[in-house]
Amino acid sequence: MSQFKVSQYTDTYVIYELVETSTDSRVLVCPERGGIVIGCKLLGKELFYLDKKTFEDPAANIRGGNPVLFPICGPLEDSEYNWEGETYRMGQHGVARNRSWDIVGTSEANEASITIRLRADEETLASYPFRFELIFTYALVNGELHTRQTYRNIGDNSPMPFYAGFHPYFAIEGGKDIAYDTDATRYIDYNDNVVKPYTGSVDLEPMVESFCLLDAKRSSISFPNGSGTRVRLTYDPLFKYVVIWSLKDRPFVCVEPWMAQPLEMNRREELVLLLAGEELQANMTISCENVSS
């Protein structure tokens, strides 16, 4: 029997289950709910937090899993931006996390994977006037979750601006004064918009807003989740920043690789620009290790 299996079941929405039996790992993907991964059990440990009520409510932003951020990360100033003389309105984190994605295919050959696709439509064009195509493959192999991304400009003429990212909610136990293993030297505290030295840990508990790690050269970050596991994210250098956030009295911390800081569509200093017909590929990997011994 193959160690890799892809199956599906219905729980409010159709859920695709990726399984690797040899590592006791399982990933749950919901294409129609923003192409989101809602469960990530690696090496027998469930890493993600999920508020099931927000997942089941189609009008709610999901609190949990790993929402896809595209074509922006974070908010826009007054929820709008100007492009070539036209003003557009867009909600926080963009359009991808609230759209239904198509299934391209699944595989059980050397990995358990699903490939999904999102294309621009009339609704996305109203807030983001670019014909895009996103193709993501979620692949479970060797006890790791790989998110292989392709961003395409399938329009005829205009360069396509964007800055993508991810918003994974990691379940934690204990306090939120967490030591993040990163080579970042500073962070911007969005609670007071002051840049501060990063000295090895930041306590999220008293914070309302997030903070953003700056100056990191290494494209990875890891942290303990309080239950004997160290979680690690590894990502392409395109993701220059990691934004970290939580909600008071909720047992999660979001550790979010972003290609640019909030308001970048207004600021335009680090936008990714894809020419018509071009594509950009990227990867992010989530893994973990047992540190209880």
Automatic annotation (TrEMBL):
It comes from Paenibacillus agaridevorans. Pfam families: Aldose_epim (PF01263). InterPro entries: Aldose_1/G6P_1-epimerase, Gal_mutarotase_sf_dom, GH-type_carb-bd. The lineage of its organism: Bacteria, Bacillati, Bacillota, Bacilli, Bacillales. GO terms for molecular function: carbohydrate binding; isomerase activity. This is Aldose epimerase. GO terms for biological process: carbohydrate metabolic process. Gene3D superfamilies: 2.70.98.10.
